[in-house]
Every structure is written in structure tokens, then in C-alpha cells.
Amino acid sequence: QEDQFKKVISHAKEYGYIFGSSEIYDGLSAVYDYGQNGAELKKNIKEYWWKSMVHLHQNIVGLDAAILMHPTTWTASGHVDAFNDPLIDNKDSKKRYRADVLVEDYAEKLNLKAQKEIDKAKKRFGEAFDEAQFVATNPRVVRYKTQQKEILERLGKSLTNEDLDDVEALIEELGIADPITGSKNWTEVRQFNLMFATKLGASADTAQDLYLRPETAQGIFVNYLNVQKTGRMKIPFGIAQIGKAFRNEIVARQFIFRMREFEQMEMQFFVRPGEDQKWYEYWKETRLNWHKSLGLGEENYRFHDHEKLAHYANAATDIEFNFPFGFKELEGIHSRTDFDLKAHEKHSGKKLQFFDPEINESYTPYVVETSIGLDRMFLAVFSSALKDETLADGSTRTVLSLPAILAPVKAAVFPLVKKDGLPEIAQQIVADLQWDFNVLYDEKDAVGKRYRRQDAAGTPFCITVDHDTLENDTVTIRHRDSMEQQRVAIADLKGMLQKALEI
Ligand code: ATP
Questions:
Q1: Are 340 and 367 a contacting pair, CB within 8 Å?
Q2: I want to staple 110 with a disulfide (CB 3.0 to 4.6 A). Which of 102, 144, 173, 189 is the partner?
């Protein structure tokens, strides 16, 4: 697993997907830049999300709010008081960790131990193996699972009560060690606010303290009435937004999984009070189906319903994805009640209500939120697409099997050789396709090598112009995943590509 993750990181760099930020100065930790292919993949993910959330739902509209917001926003949202993480330092290694992450990782280890027992038994009993029965009765598995559950429950309780002494006690009782040095010499747990502060205004005494937004959701809440009125929206309706968010994460690790500057794709759905549970279930299902539609493998997703709820929520779940380092949160779906709108009403003195003509009543709507990290989605797509394959003739190839709709370059066009007028025809094909599709021209190296280069870069189709083209205006089109080649008329290329990009 670790090897696969390293491969993902180096492949992302080698093929122009992701670079460390300001690398020539040795980089900035947990900040990344997207290269020529990364920028395209990211844009395609955004577009896919935007189309399915905004264009395919007549009652959802978009928004693009500013990153800087009035500072009271963050008092109202609770971020000034509650956007804290419990931190712990190791006295020997001087390394700093998030205390809850240390405990969660320990609990996850118990889970892995249980899984090992299950896998062993599966191998031993073969076909006859009844997994549910085994999990319910095998004493070791039961012990691991119960212990894991107890630890997480206790952690959840201490975090919601902010009883950090208990988190500290947990770390001691479980004998959790510094993951790098193995030392168990910990300091006490402290709270740390994750928001990045900045100043508005030039002179030191009049400058106002601002925060870079730690989530995009609040830009939607403060604009709720603007959009509802000007768009003449009727409940239920949604507002969607894609934009940057900033968190001064302490445990910045796992590549683009946890970044300090990242992008969110969020949708807030405003509903009638009392109908929140129904819509929460609806969005859970709809969002999971969205993920499945990309074909990254249904077994790579699972729900993780929260037992410990944030201060604003009455129900919450994560859609977890099987990243190279295991199942982790990819998207959050939260039933946020009327917490945010009520808080903004209180702090701004403005009414944020909706008059519902169907029931002849005014109320503050309830909100169901779907919130996904664009960068995490990128990592999910990229890591699950990267494969090493052994071919029938014993040779190997690296292939990045991105869904065609998300692939940065849709087709690469090659002249078989650099003479006989083939390059000119290939260039003309590029010129005819490039307004509709991102295509590229390549004439360097033998054609087999060019195929391999595009396989590794994730390009789903290679179009080759050869001497037959001169006779009959046809080319070969080679499919990345099956490596099959097909002879097609140049005039049919556009239609074929269009069709291949449908989902
Ligand atoms: P985590 O528990 O992993 O810190 P979270 O529960 O704080 O995440 P939310 O506040 O619910 O996350 O944010 C919604 C989504 O934004 C997450 O599901 C995740 O995909 C993404 N996200 C949150 N923090 C980061 C980050 N530091 N880097 C990249 N993506 C992030």
C-alpha cells in the first residue's frame, strides 16, 4: 500500500499533474501546485460536478462568493470559538500531532487486525466461509471490533464535551507512541484555531483582522436571501459553489489529502423544517450514485455515519473512499438544521426567512449540505486509475485509466512517420478537433513509445495517420485500456470522441 502511494506521488509529478508549491525554494508544506495535466483534470472534475449538481437540477443554482468575508461571519458560524483541533506535542521528538488523529489511527489498527483474521479465515474455509457469522462469533475479531468502537465512542464524547483531559488519558492508557520515534513522552492536549488570519488595510492601528475562509459554506448562507429573491427560488432549492478554502492544518500529511490551501465543491439545500431527514437521505443516495457513475469501482466507497456530531448538525455521514492509505473521508453530507441561518440572523439583525405559499407560513429553512474536497476527489480518481499491467507478451506497461470524461487530453494525434505528408494531415486533424476536445500532436519517437507515453499520461485515445490514410482518408484509433485498434474515417472522429465521452 505504501509503495503504491509513493508511486502515485511520483507519477503525479512525472506526468505534470502535481508539483510541490514553490519547489525551487524547497516547497511549502501541505501546499501544492497543479501542472499542465493536473489543471485539466481538476477543471474536468469541477465541470462534471457542476453539471450534475447545477445544470441537471432545475432547483439548484450556482454562486461564486469572495474568499474574504466580514469577520462577524466567523463568530456567527462558530468558527472563532469552535474551529479548534486538539493538539499534542511529543517532548522527545518535538513533533506535534492532532490528538484525535493519533487515537483514530490506533483504533484503525485494531480494525486492520480484525480484517487480517477475517482474511485468514476466508483463505482457510474458502467457499464455505460465512463472513457475517465469523465476525459475530470469533473471539479475537469481536474483541478488536468492540475495543475499536469503545475507543472511538470515548474519543467522540471527550471531543464534544471538550474534555481534553480525557483525550490525554486515552493516549496514555492505550500506550500510543510517536509514530516516527516510538516515544511515549507526551505534553498535555491543547486547542488550536485552524483559521488563517490576515489584515485588511495598510496602517497598523486601523487595520482590521480578517480570516481566509475555512469553508465555502458561509458564503452561501450570507447570500441565501439574495439568491432566493433574485432567482425567485421556492423551497426546496439549493445553492452550489466551488472555491478555495484555507485551514492551518497541523497534521499536514498524505499528499493532497490534507492541504492548507484546498478547494471545496459544496451545495447547501434549503428545505422546510421537518423535511430535513428526508432530504438528508435523498442527498446521501444521490451523492453516492454520482461517485459510482464514474466507474472507479463500487467496492471503493462506504458510508461512515457520525456518532459524534459537530455543533451545527443533527445528522452527518462521510462518503469514504479507499485511498492508497485506506478508507478515508472524501465527502461529507450534513444535516445542518437552521443553525447557520439563525446564527446569521442573530448577528446581523436581518431576517433570513422564507414565506412558504404552500403552507402559508414564514420560517427559517433547514439546510442539508453536501461538501466534497476537489483535491481529495482528484486523489481518489488519480490513485485508483494508476495501474501497472503485465501484457500477454510478458512486457509491462503503466497505464492511467482515467474515466474518459475526466482525462486531461482526450486524444493524441500521431503521424506514423515524419514524412510523405503524414504530419500535415495529422496537424489538420488536430485543428479540426481542438475546439471541441483537448487534443495534442506528437511526432517524436517510435509510435509504440508514443502510445506508452499517452497510456501513462491517461489519454484515452491515440489517432494515427499512416500511408493508408493517403489512399482512403481513414486513420487508426487506439483505445488506451484495451489497446485495441480500429480503422475509422477521419470524418467520423468527432462523433466517435463525442460518444466516448458520454457517461
Ligand atoms: P477531516 O476530518 O478529514 O479533517 P473535515 O471533516 O474537517 O475533514 P469538512 O469540514 O466536512 O471536512 O469539509 C468537507 C470536505 O472538504 C471534506 O470531506 C474533504 O473532502 C475536504 N477537506 C477538508 N479539509 C481538507 C484539507 N485540509 N485538505 C483537502 N481537503 C479537505
A1: yes
A2: 144
